[in-house]
Structure to design on (382 residues):
């Protein structure tokens, strides 16, 4: 098997490499400062201090109060805590929930859990550009709507959602807005996404896997979703992942510091790639025409299957992705592109390429050449 070093990684929306500085910041908390942050003794206090410092840094970076942050094991857990936790704790105010149809499974399946537990759930569909408008949200809101969930930016298309306008509608309807900020955290400022609570995940912005956070604003009631100890003010039991939290805080600082430079280089590479692909491969069409995250490119190839494209690209050393990962570890055709009203062929043939800090113009040229070959081979075989 070829090593990853000589491969081209165009899947930065799935996960990112850990920044060297982040790895260095985490290292002392594995073998040196290894105490349990809940312990009373000096070992525990040293670890707890590191958690407090990290919480404070993240609060500054996210423009929130430190006590609004609840550390979790991943973005998925943060979405579960926010969506189930807020809806269940406020069920006396209403049992109607609205979620956008283009959410990550962490949100869609949390909503499905609520639907199985006495809530009515409605889905808000995007327009053909992949935008969930405030008007569309308004249409599904009811007198008993307690929670609305719309993500900051979509993980498949990168399309940025008008969260500020949506928040106005949700607030005037007396509901709470949950925003999955997993794709935008560290990349775009939180001021673009006003809401009552949001999720983030360290591995999307140069931090380690297996650590995330839910921010739930002061005054918003929510119910703990983990039965356990008193950690995180009794709202998320479980020993804190100290190295992970230290790494997440450092990664957030670094990614914000570097966000402008990273976005302009990723966007330049993405645009160059798109102009080659859309101009040079017949039957290629871009999914998601609105304002997008800098590195995302989602393209359909008529007459092809996205899974085959991804598999054959992988054999040529290029990593991309298609559809949404399902429980079996296989992929299913994208519910996002489908929700945008695309026909079945376009949905089945969608592939996501996501550019990031480690990519170069050589990657663009090589990935384009491989893609052209792969698409031609699949069409010949068909
Ligand atoms: N939400 C979005 C938009 C994502 O892209 C992801 C991960 O792909 C998640 C939630 C889940 O995050 P995690 O992998 O940390 O569970």
């Amino acid at each position: 098997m070829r090593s990853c070093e000589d491969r081209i990684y165009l899947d930065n929306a799935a996960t990112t490499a850990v920044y060297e500085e982040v790895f260095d910041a985490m290292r002392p908390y594995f073998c040196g400062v290894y105490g349990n942050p809940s312990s009373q003794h000096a070992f525990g206090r040293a670890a707890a201090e590191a958690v407090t410092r990290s919480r404070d840094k993240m609060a500054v970076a996210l423009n929130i109060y430190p006590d609004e942050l609840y550390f979790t094991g991943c973005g998925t857990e943060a979405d579960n805590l926010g969506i189930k936790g807020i809806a269940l704790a406020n069920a006396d105010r209403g049992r109607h929930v609205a979620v956008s149809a283009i959410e990550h499974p962490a949100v869609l399946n949390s909503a499905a859990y609520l639907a199985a537990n006495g809530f009515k759930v409605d889905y808000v569909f995007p327009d053909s550009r992949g935008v969930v408008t405030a008007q569309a949200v308004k249409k599904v809101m009811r007198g008993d709507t307690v929670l609305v969930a719309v993500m900051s930016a979509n993980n498949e298309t990168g399309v940025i959602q008008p969260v500020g306008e949506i928040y106005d509608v949700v607030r005037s309807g007396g509901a709470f807005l949950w925003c999955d900020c997993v794709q935008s955290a560290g990349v775009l400022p939180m001021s673009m996404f006003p809401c009552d609570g949001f999720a983030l995940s360290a591995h999307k912005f140069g931090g380690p896997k297996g650590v995330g956070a839910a921010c739930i604003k002061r005054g918003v009631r929510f119910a703990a979703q983990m039965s356990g100890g008193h950690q995180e003010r009794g709202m998320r039991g479980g020993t804190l992942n100290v190295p992970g939290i230290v790494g997440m805080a450092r990664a957030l600082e670094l990614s914000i510091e570097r966000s402008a430079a990273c976005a302009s280089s990723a966007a330049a590479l993405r645009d160059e790639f798109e102009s080659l692909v859309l101009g040079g491969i017949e039957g290629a069409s871009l999914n998601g025409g609105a304002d997008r995250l800098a590195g995302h490119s989602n393209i359909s190839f008529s007459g092809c299957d996205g899974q085959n494209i991804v598999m054959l690209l992988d054999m040529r050393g290029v990593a991309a992705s298609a559809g949404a990962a399902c429980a079996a570890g296989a992929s299913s055709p994208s519910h996002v592109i489908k929700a945008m009203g695309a026909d079945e062929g376009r949905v089945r043939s969608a592939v996501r390429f996501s550019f990031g800090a480690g990519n170069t113009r050589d990657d663009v040229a090589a990935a384009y050449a491989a893609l052209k070959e792969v698409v031609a081979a699949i069409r010949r075989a068909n």
